[in-house]
Amino acid sequence: MKITKATFKKLVREGIERDNIYIKRISAFDGQIDGTRYLDGGFTKTQKRDFSENTLGVVGIWLVGGGRDYFEGYEDDQFAGIEVSNSCGHFIVAVKK
Questions:
Q1: How many Å apart are CA 88 and CA 91, to the nearest integer?
Q2: How far apart are CA 96 and CA 38, in angstroms?
Q3: What is the pLDDT of residues 49-66, one digit of tens each?
Q4: DSSP strands (E only) in the chain
Q5: Tally of CA atoms within 13 A in the half-sphere of 40 that contains its CB
Q6: Residue 97 in 3-state DSSP?
Q7: Contact partners, residue 25, CB within 8 Å, separation at least 6
Q8: How many CA atoms lie within 13 A of 97 on its CB side?
Q9: What is the predicted pLDDT for the residue at 29?
């Protein structure tokens, strides 16, 4: 199954509704180095923020749009979700199994 932005938005919307959505930030844009920096850490429960098309209302999500976001399925022993990479970073949004 091909994962699209619509698939990702559905996962986020349903995860928020069920209060079962987690994020693992792998890298993020850092203006001090004018590029992305790698982050250490595991999955954390997401926090809501004001909705925009770039954030979908979730802290840690940043979509660039224009077909420049790349989506791939993700699954481990505890979580199932979608891995996202773009010019602003790399992260995984998932729900607990």
A1: 10
A2: 24
A3: 999 999 999 999 999 999
A4: 22-30, 35-38, 44-45, 70-75, 79-86, 89-96
A5: 0
A6: coil
A7: 39, 41, 60, 89, 90, 91
A8: 7
A9: 86
